[in-house]
Amino acid sequence: MASEITIDPVTRIEGHARIRISLDDAGQVGDAQFQVTQFRGFEKICQGRPLAEMPSLMARICGICPVSHLIASAKACDRILAVRPPKVGADLRALMNLAQVVQSNALSLFHLASPDLLFGFDADPATRSIVGVAKLHPQLAMDGIYLRKFGQHTIELLGGKRIHPAWIVPGGVESPLTAEKRDEIRAMIPEAYAAADRALAWYKNNLLNWAEEAETFGSFQSAFMALVDADGNVAHYDGRLRVVDHDGTLLADFDAYDYADYIGEYTDEASFLKPTYFKPLGIENGLYRVGTLARAIVAERFGTPRADAELDEFRSRFGRYPSSSFHYHQTRLLDILYGIERMEMFLNDPEILATRVASHAEVNRNVGIGVAEAPRGTLIHHYVVDDDGIIQTANLIIATGHNAAAMNASVLQVARHFVKGERIEEGMLNRVEAVIRCYDPCLSCSTHAMGQMPLHISLVAPNGDVLDEVRR
Amino acid sequence: MSRPTFATIWLDGCSGCHMSFLDMDERLLEITERADLVYSPLVDAKVYPEGVDLVLVEGAVSTDEDLERIRMVRSRTKTLVALGDCAVTTNVPGMRNVFADARPLFQRAYVDNVTVNLGMPSKGLPHHLPKTLPVHKVVPVDVFLPGCPPSADLIFDTVMALLEGRAPEAASHARFGN
Amino acid sequence: MTVHTLRIDGVECAGSADQTVLDVARENGIEIPTLCHLDGLCDIGACRLCVVEVQGSNKLLPACTTQVADEMDVTTASPRLQEYRRTIIEMLFVERNHVCAVCVANNHCELQARAEEVGLTHLDLANVNPKLDVDASHERFAIDHNRCIMCTRCVRVCDEVEGAHTWDVMGRGIDARVVTDLGMPWGESPTCTSCGKCVQVCPTGALFEKGRPVASTKAGRPFLPYLKSREEGGRR
User: Fold this and answer.
1) Residues C174 and C220 occupy one common structural domain
2) Closest residue of C to B96, CA-based?
3) Do A388 and C133 touch (CB under 8 A)?
4) CB-CB: which of B136, B173, B177 is closest to C101?
5) Do A267 and B92 touch (CB under 8 A)?
6) Most exposed among A18, A256, A386, C90, judged by the fewest C-beta atoms under 10 Å?
């Protein structure tokens, strides 16, 4: 007989989410649905607002990656003003973006995912938290806190606030970097490298523990999308969008301005999140992934020595085009290492202290599109303004939207592999949550990111009888 | 003498206040030395327990599920702190309150602004209240911490004061929007 | 000019007949919060934030429009007055849509500063949430009516100092709005000289320079008293 399992709440993105798994008559998993249960209507409330205020308004979409929104928004504004920021303005934006990449990826891996990886997916829920990690693996916890602090403090030194700094503006940034602040950031770099190195060593040494998960956590063929620079290397701040197929075949390479030719959005009756699809392949076949794994697959290299050395090792182990979403974790660490290296390069450039940090103009175009790589994937802001610079319409495609279809497929895959018959196994619940965690959905530090979320799963027969019930 | 217990939850927010909470960096461990974090994004918990001493609430009340959740939390907690502008004044989520209800938002997001509409989101999802509300319009609030987000120092000082049974002086110097 | 002696918060003060209670209080280091008052513009008592208690009167009087009189006994900071001031600021917040976090004047706003000073931490009164627009038709400046508190400093500076009288008030009560000329878009105004004085005197983020991002308005130069003294000194 058919029945349904509801995992509620699963809170991984803006607000809260649920997972519904339906079983067919034979007790096998038929379908799975990841439901996002928060919606604030940013695409509506920004109508009528002045262009220059958009970056800081859009930053409030997310408190973990506000810098990504500030950048994509400011870049869309740049196009409307028809200006290019001065090189130092672009570099400073990129520097803040990288600081965010480091802190956000650190949060995801250390504060959220590490307890599963440290204690095992079946371990006692009571220990699975940063508090538990701090007790039993203090070095790892402190490394995670340090990397997060390194990124956040850099953001604070650049922009005045750790969260929602109003410093990234149309045309560039608000103020230059002083030598003093530059030195303060640079002083933190050696320890940041040490923390990243320790974490990578720990992760690689423990890979064998997670072999089964690595095989089944969102392990399917899909296309991937990421921003790349002119050399085809990883880029977070600017570049062209590139889409490759599961075997590396180039599917598309385009400027942000043409995104609508390649990316479409559709509605999901059971979720507030709008999934996207790769238009040339249609909704059915147009699933693709973004984020740290996508960047490692789509790009040729990172372009920095340490991250590239790690990337080579990763590829020699898992192939040039690994398909399992489990590898988001390792590529997240590579992203952190790359971030530190690129930040160091910017800070060592004396020109980073230059004082002309913004270009100025009035509204010169009515449409602007800005794209950036947020820690968890590609982010697009698309604005239409009237001649006075008042927002008429805005379209936002956030990283988790690109990954929505993949997350649904992953939840289904994990459920099918681990859910058998009528009994709900504890480990299944953990793993279903854990596969979502691989994607680091926007707002991963929501409820119950560490260790275990309170889940209530009930197996209900069509006549309403509760066949089995598990509460965590 | 048992240790005090504290919790954090969030409703309709951006999680920036929780990030600011984490921005106290190592001092987080100072707090967890002093009190048990029994329910939060950060620790494992099955259900929001009874008799929690202190809760930090981020985010405005926008849906029927937010409403239910905050009432449940209030009934099981001694001291409730409204954390951040969304919880205190509705801030950005409250910008939708110029409309009579959430329908214009849905029209824009799911009809006007999609390539393909396969149906409106409605199945098994929370329902939006006509207006987004600040927390104190729904349940009594003991301490207000405005800010977007309030700084880590402010959060740390306030939590420590409350856990130690002192008046949270720092909270009275907070400012909307800062 | 006749000199009056009066008492403010127990402090003996002296002021000339043409001075207000606010003038004399400030001369004696006694701070009374204000919003619609601005040195260099005539006072109109719009915001009522500066109301004080005067012995012998059962009404609260605005310090900015009340001229000093002999033997006046003024209290500027009783618990009742503090509560009323908090209520006034709360009413200003709920009347329109003030979202400090994403406002061009964040951290440079007199309404925000007054709220912090009176210890306003939340709003109990019911929100009005009117649907108001931004008029960005002018080449250099814009007005966001959501952030306007109807202090009318813009009206007064445009009339008294620039002399253009582009700004005025249309409508009554809660529906009152500041308008340019006969209520046309600012960019179409034939009288506006684009001098920017209204933008400089606006206490909130209502009037602003186009292209200014959030939290970027800087405090204006105190040019009004200088202009006023030049005017009073006579033109040669």
Assistant:
1) yes
2) C129
3) no
4) B177
5) no
6) A386
Last residue of a domain, one of C15, C46, C77: C77
Half-sphere exposure of C28 (CA within 13 A, CB side): 21
C172 class by beta-carbon count within 10 Å (0-12 exposed, 13-18 middle, 19+ buried):
exposed
Separation of alpha carbons B30 and B12, rounded Å: 28
* Structure confidence at residue B46 (pLDDT): 55
Q: How many domains does chain C have?
A: 2
CB contact under 8 A, A50 and C144: yes
pTM metric for this prediction: 0.93
Cα(A375)–Cα(A107) distance, integer angstroms: 11
Contacts of A170 in chain C (CB under 8 A): 211, 213
To the nearest whole Å, the CA of C206 is away from the closest chain A CA by: 12
Q: Top-level CATH class of B5-95+130-173?
A: alpha beta
Contact B123 A274 (CB under 8 A): no
The complex scores an ipTM of: 0.94
Total length of chain A: 472
Domain span including residue C174: 83-232
pLDDT averages per 10-residue partition of chain A, 472 residues: 68 57 80 85 94 96 94 98 98 98 93 85 76 88 96 98 97 97 98 97 90 89 97 96 97 96 93 92 95 97 98 96 95 97 98 97 97 94 97 93 91 83 68 86 39 41 55 44
User: What pLDDT shows up at residue A124?
Assistant: 77
Task: Classify domain A3-39+55-209+348-352+406-471 at the CATH topology level.
Answer: Cytochrome-c3 Hydrogenase; chain B (1.10.645)
**CB spacing of A389 vs C215 below 8 angstroms:** no
Mutation target to probe the B interface, by most B beta carbons within 10 A, among A7, A447, A456 is A447
Q: Which of residues 137-166 of C touch B (CB under 8 A)?
A: none
Determine the distance in angstroms separating the CA of A301 from the nearest CA of chain C, rounded to an integer.
36
pLDDT tens for residues C33-82?
999 999 999 999 999 999 999 999 999 999 999 999 999 999 999 999 99
**pLDDT value at residue A122:** 80
Q: Which residues contact B44 (CB under 8 A, 6 or more apart)?
A: A125, A126, A127, A128, A129, A448, A450, A451, A452
* Per-residue confidence (pLDDT) for residue A465, from 0 to 100: 58
Q: Do A166 and C215 touch (CB under 8 A)?
A: yes
| Upper half-sphere CA count for residue A163 (Cβ side, 13 Å) | 30
Identify any residues that bridge with C61 across adjacent strands, giving them in sequence order.
C52
